[in-house]
Amino acid sequence: MELRELETFRAIVEAGGVVRAASRMHRAQSSVTARIRQLEASLGVQLFERDGRTLRLTAAGDVLLQYADRLLGLADEARAAVHLDSVCGRLRLGAMESIAASRLPGPLAAFHGRYPEVAVELQTAPSRELIARLHAGALDAAIVGDEVDDARFTSIPLYQEELILVAAAGCPLLQNPKRLNGKTLLVFQGQGCAYRRRFEQWLQTLRVVPSRVLEFGSYHAILAAAAAGVGASLIPRSVLDIYAQREAVSWAEVPSRVAKLRTLLLMPMTTHAPALTRLVELLRADATAQTGAKLPSPRMATPMTV
Hints:
This protein is an alpha/beta fold and 306 residues long.
């Protein structure tokens, strides 16, 4: 089993077929097919099965894909490590959707400008899913909203997020959180979101029971629904800061014990890639620069004290 065979295998999976993979890799289709046959022969298993005009991974192929990502990632890390003055390779970064939208555009643009030889792959998902991907070796680092007590990971504090309650402009629900009882909540999809859990736990302590909970795949969709009067949501203040129609919503502060949440950069203790080191430096500098930044008030309701 050779690295070139693993690169070809992963390229076929990502491209969805041999023809597209050959085109992306600038190789002859026969060469790509031959490499996969050699890999299957060396492993003694079938990696793909044909489903009409498309290829589908077998169970063995699905297992190999996880190892291929890790092995190829280690190969990139080894190449970079022996060239300490060269920052290159691939960097797989995970982040919560809110962080990816509101915090990362600036530092990632700066990183790309300084280190154009590094291919950054950004994956967005709730915190728990990102941590699971780190455990599986599918990510090199991830920005999450959950504390992780695991000796295998290095944890670096980054952005101090402030959660605020949002609803339609002029909505009276924001004046007292207990008025949310029997109303509609707007939350990020899935149970792995740290902000959603914070919201639900807070309402449980207030004995507030919503009539409905609507899930969304992005915070901009949540804000659009809030502006339309669908319901209320607890979101990072930084997300509202970049929302173009801020005048369409009202927001209110919530108790500090609910509002304050520090995001963390997690990465395996064994990772020493120069590219990741440089990215961490940029992220920490950006987080420091943003400390204390406040959102100009679009329409603020009376602050909550409950």
